[in-house]
Amino acid sequence: MPADSVTTSLAPAPVAATNDFVVKFANVNGSGSASANGLFAKAIIRMGVPVAPRNIFPSNIQGLPTWYEVRVSENGHLGRRGGVDLAVALNPQTWDDDVQEIVAGGYLFYDSTKPLPSTKFRDDVHVIGVPLTSICNNAYSVPRERQLFKNIAYVGALSHLIGIDPDVVETLLAEEFASKAKLIGANIKAFHLGRDWARDHLKPIGLQLRSSNAVGDRIFVEGNNAAALGAVYGGATVCAWYPITPSTSLAEAFAAHCANLRTDPDGTKRYAIVQAEDEIASIGVVVGAGWNGARAFTCTSGPGISLMNEFIGLSYFAEIPAVIFDVQRGGPSTGMPTRTQQSDLLLAAYASHGDTKHVLLLPADPGECFEMGAQAFDLADRLQTTVFVMLDLDIGMQEWLVAPFKWDDSKVLDRGKVMTAEDLEAGKPFGRYTDVDGDGITYRTYPGTHPTRGAFFTRGTSRNRMAGYSEKGVDYQDNMERLLAKFHTAAKFVPPAILRLAPQPTRIGAIYFGSTTPAMHEALEDLERKGHHIDALRVRGFPFGDEVYDFITTHDEICVVEQNRDAQLRTLLMVEGSINPARLTSILHYDGTPITARFLSDAIGRRLDARRAMRQIAE
Length: 619
Description:
Blueprint: E1 5-6, E2 17-18, E3 20-28, H1 33-46, E4 51-56, E5 65-73, E6 84-89, H2 95-100, E7 102-111, E8 126-130, H3 132-139, H4 143-162, H5 166-176, H6 181-201, E9 207-208, E10 219-222, H7 223-233, E11 238-241, H8 248-261, E12 272-275, H9 279-291, E13 296-300, H10 302-318, E14 322-328, H11 345-349, E15 359-361, H12 366-383, E16 386-392, H13 393-396, E17 399-402, H14 421-425, H15 473-490, E18 498-500, E19 508-512, H16 517-529, E20 535-538, E21 541-542, H17 546-553, E22 557-562, H18 568-577, E23 584-588, H19 597-618
Parallel strand pairs: 2-9, 3-6, 6-7, 7-8, 11-12, 11-13, 13-14, 14-16, 15-16, 19-20, 19-22, 22-23
Antiparallel strand pairs: 1-8, 3-5, 4-5, 10-17, 15-21, 18-20
């Protein structure tokens, strides 16, 4: 292949779009490409055009394939679309698969220093060759510099091809290397090496960027960072954790936020962060801190939840507040630790042995990670139990454009039913496991509240209402029924589901949650254009509220969208609502990559087309 642009005679017209296309980078992990790819995405944001990047990376340090997909969408679509308009193919290991992902009429950008046989290309794709290795070998003598600056050089070449403002890139580089001034000029030089070569040899392609104001005041933030900040605002002072992908950055972000927000001017730290020896110890610290009245949490993923089950059961049965941020990943076992799934729903909902049911919060983006990250601590105190905040890798470790976080400074933390020393001194009756209000929630005291009355005594064994040890069946059953009543009460406190009505009346519905949300919304728009009208309901918490079951009963068929193999959300709906399985159709995606709008539109569309055909036959 020649070193410049190649277009075969059989290739269809080039894809043309402004501020609406998908670019996918295929690199080798550890090659230094991550910074360059992030620079590419941030430059587009600085031009006022929304992007939704997805970093798909391996679980080793270096050597394996890694991808970085950037969805450019002036309309603000933040989910994956499906298909690639421009592939930057720089990894020979994955070349064939990367080339196959390109849409007909799309573009293939590659390092053309060494020629490749014609069999490595597609006739319906427009090929753009830039001799990156040769350019950098001529400019640099140190091997590592050649590799690192080649990444910046391809950003330079792309900036000419699709219209990225070079001044924006230079500003970002100056900000990135502000503490290492000598690297600013070196990176700008590498950027212009690629840009100048492309300007001299290539014409801009059909995918173009135009400055916009569509980004507005939105911020670019990871879900783990947002959840950690929510924990600070929610009153958390204790974090005990054990490192595990993809949750580690949540604990690290909490430490950074506490250093800024929970440290007095004299240097006194008003928080405790414990990296425990394992997941079992970490949840033990959290339960102990909750027993003492602190707001405490741990962050982990599916394997960690498996290890924490006994302590989770203690929190449930002894009724001690705790918060767990579960950043879900591919399982079972080690599974795919750097891939995303929504596969811990059943694990978390019924964690521990015996009869247990736990509260789940289901955020859809970093904005809700912040809100629910704070809300979880109010719920844990109010309900005196473990509350799970169910992120996944796609939300937790990816940067999303979201509205700036808001907080009401007049908000008072909800500590729930707590007896004070004054209450006890006044002679108010206190039985630790006595339900006086009929909502299943009992009163508690903090340790040391009163020297003689109402000591905070708790049991992980069967007891009577006064916390006295008892193996009487009537006492055990009384307690278990009260815990179930408390779980039903929790449905009034979790965030309600959000309804999205179709433009025309319909008896077809869809239920979805979490990180599938942006792709689902785009798919619904596409289905409406094709004449398929669907009402949709996004569930945001468990136990499910009445609005969820009302939605199901008022529709003839429900498509349940989720990212796991075993239809776990569908199972929860059937079990908890006694729903006829025939009313719930699963739309499942579980290859470890974030779900796409095109996948959803095709899958739901096929189901609705089949339903329409069956109805026509019946008529």
